[in-house]
Amino acid sequence: MERPxxxxxxxxxxxxxxxxxxxxxxxxxxxxxMGILNVTPDSxxxxxxxxxxxxxxxRAEAMIAEGADIIDVGGESTRxxxxxxxxxxxxxxxxxxxxxxxxxxxxxVSVDTSRSGTAKAAIDAGAEIVNDISGxxxxxxxxxxxxxxKSAIILMHSRGEFAEMHSMxxxxxxxxxxxxxxxxxxxxxxxxxxxxxxxxVDIGIGFGKSRSQNFELLAKLDKIADSLPYPIxxxxxxxxxxxxxxxxxxxxxxxxxxxxxxxxxxxxxANVLRVHDVADTVEAVRTYERLASIG
Length: 295
Hints:
Blueprint: E1 10-11, E2 17-20, E3 25-27, E4 32-38, H1 53-65, E5 70-74, H2 87-104, E6 109-112, H3 116-125, E7 129-132, H4 142-149, E8 152-156, H5 174-192, E9 199-202, H6 211-219, H7 221-227, E10 232-234, H8 243-246, H9 255-268, E11 272-275, H10 278-294
Helix pairs in contact: 1-2, 2-3, 3-4, 9-10
């Protein structure tokens, strides 16, 4: 398969594409799998399961054994209907877990936060990637924190403030909206001093899009990849738009649909998959990549 030109990457001596974090050069020769570790009581799929540090550490260990390339730690639920938690609560939830994971395992850890204070504390604890669902819209200092630490930053597409981001009426043309909005987020990151080789974008599946628009974004991901020359994250795992296919099952009943969406996303240009079900995703994606390598 022909490899697109991606200005957000630089290449190592072997020609492999590399994403720079604050702690390493992360080679992206294949799609990376980011395992979700929510240390919250109310996340839509796994809320309350990993609040205790020991439980969170065991979950991280399990995901690493299943083939995760990155662990994404979040201390504030962003499910529909959720409210903001105090900044100190979010910070306390993630810092101890990040310290535990990074002291025991040599794996990149991402902090899922839109707050600069939480990001800084998480980076000090060992995180090397900041995952911002607001795309630098809510906290103008977040880009500077990432730049100063030389951490990678994931810029996600969303609209509206925290309380309304899931209830915003869908735009008429979603692909163009996502492309244009992410270009603004990238410009903000660059202006804050973030290196191009440290920028990743996320199309924001489920955030202010209709079910059909979420499917459209996946189907037209190649168009987005052509317009945004940065690594692309797709986070479709267990999300409610999949109920169009599965019927109204609970999140854990959407694993097969999530895995199918993940493989299709890779076919269309995804570079990182943010998932709950690491083992299923890794096996499916590696099988696809093996088959694709033959042609």
